[in-house]
Amino acid sequence: MSSASTELQSAYDECRSITRREAKNFYYAFLTLPPERRRAIYVIYAFCRHCDDSVDTEGSIEEKLATLSQIRQDLAGSPLTGAAAPVFVALADVANRYDIPQQHFQDLVSGVETDLVKTRYADFQELQQYCYQVASVVGLICLQIFGFQDLRARQHSIDLGLAMQLTNIARDVKEDLDMGRIYLPQDEIAQFGYSEEELKAGTMNQQFVELMRFQATRAKEYFHSGFQLLPYLSHRSRACPAVLGGLYCGILDRIESHGYDVFNYRASLTKGEKFRLLAQAWLGSYLHGVFPTPKAR
Predict the structure, then answer these.
(1) pLDDT score at 295
(2) Would the pLDDT of 297 be above 60?
(3) Rounded to an integer, what distance in angstroms lies between the CA atom of residue 67 and that of residue 108?
(4) pLDDT by residue (tens digit) across 13-41?
(5) Which of 96, 172, 174, 181 has the fewest Cβ atoms within 10 angstroms?
(6) How far apart, in whole angstroms, are the C-alpha atoms of residue 60 and residue 172?
């Protein structure tokens, strides 16, 4: 084996180790993929983790922005020449093998950058753009690896990413507040007669419940479209997004079952519930027309 082949194999192994250590639920969903596609997905996860970790460390915003700028430079070179860090060596190979547009990676970096410089969203249009960058583009990258024939798959993949990120936002209202961030659109907070002051105080009232019900309903609509992606994928690939989407549907259902009280309860699933949802989504992805959906309430 040449030194270049050894380096590439080592880079792939490092990405697998990162995914196994950090991905938790995602890792088990990835196991449903054929080996070659699974190996590529590990690289994508490791790159996403690399971007997140680059802004989660100590340092000024300026230093973190400089780090992201360096990532952009590494990306610009990676498809042709690779970069020293293992994740970029593997990423260059994956991008070439699966014809992944570099703009997807650049958009992801833009989303991570947004979290450093933006703490409020005036309306859903602004929020949707952010969700696209941090979640939907990951779905589009994965779509290249899964393989598809019909271009309609792209919009469904975008929508599944939006649904999952909107679920994250609903679940993490309190945690985001602790970091000074509010992802709920400002105009919708006002529309439901709620206020930022009440949000910061953790005020649970009917206005907040209606605001959160509105957010959940929108997420469900995106899930409905997102799960229509599955028939466009091969049986060997569709289980992965089915499992991931099923887990997030479970979280959304749990938020609703707690009466949208995300201040006092962080929606999560037990290990048994996760494995049940994994099994249901995996099996359903192989059956025609049987896809996971959030419960109607």
Answers:
(1) 64
(2) no
(3) 14
(4) 999 999 999 987 788 789 889 999 999 99
(5) 96
(6) 24
Tokens of 98: 């699966």
Tokens (6 digits) for 102: 């570099």
Entry field: residues in the chain:
297
Read off the amino acid at residue 150. D
Quick check: 246 and 280 in contact, CB under 8 A?
Answer: yes
Beta-strand runs (E) in 69-130? none
Give the torsion sign (CA, 84, 46, 222, 192). Answer: negative
What is the distance between the terminal CA atoms of the chain, rounded to a whole angstrom? 58
* Rg from Cα positions in the chain: 19
Residue carrying the six token digits 């309190």: 174
Give the separation between CA 107 and CA 92, rounded to whole angstroms.
17
Q: Which residues 6+ apart lie within 8 Å of 283 measured at CB?
A: 290
Residue 27 class from Cβ within 10 Å (0-12 exposed, 13-18 middle, 19+ buried)? Answer: middle
- Paired tokens of 141: 């990258």
Mean per-residue pLDDT of the chain? 90
**Residue owning tokens 């950090």:** 22
Contact 292, 246 (CB under 8 A): yes
Reading the block at residue 147, the tokens are 């393989």
Q: Are 260 and 209 in contact (CB under 8 A)?
A: yes
Q: How many CB atoms lie within 10 A of CB 15?
A: 27
For tokens 């989504």, what's the residue? 281
Question: Which residues have CB under 8 Å from 199's CB, separation 6+?
Answer: 173, 177, 182, 184, 189, 208
The structure's pTM equals 0.92
d(CA 184, CA 262) in angstroms, rounded, equals 13
